[in-house]
Model the fold of this input.
Amino acid sequence: MKKETFKEVRGYEGLYAVSNLGNIFSHKRGSLLNPRPRIEKRYRIVQLHKNGMTKNYRVARLVAMAFIPNPKNLPEVNHKNGISYEDRVENLEWCTHRENIIHSIRTGLRISAFGEKIGIAVLTDKKVKRARTEYRKGKNVAELGRKYGVDRKTMRSVVLGKTWKHLLPPSATV
Done:
């Protein structure tokens, strides 16, 4: 088991310290804070108080800010093992939003649904293919939108290949 070490929380020096194991210590109370999970995401959150102001922070972010260098100024903290409440420094890394999304898809945390697989989709793969064919033959997007039950802007994105990209031939570029 790794030895627990604490560093002051940036911006809250003398008030709070964060450990490499994901614990937050309150100097004023003389004890550890009890992080609460955010219901929809399961991230552990703590409230820090300073000058009469209260602010919520993800524990993972406080750990990363204290213990992990971020020379590229990357905006997000990723949980390497995919478990969002394991805030040990070894489980965290700085990343871009794109890297975070890719990691969540690869680890199965996020389902990569698109097209008709999305539950609220109005169109189907078959309808999109038909609409694109009709567009190439001269039908306008407003007419196609009415026919397939979507607005003109949505149909424009569909026929131009800005959405439903998975149905484009591999050589097609948008």
About this structure: The chain is about 25% helix and 20% strand.
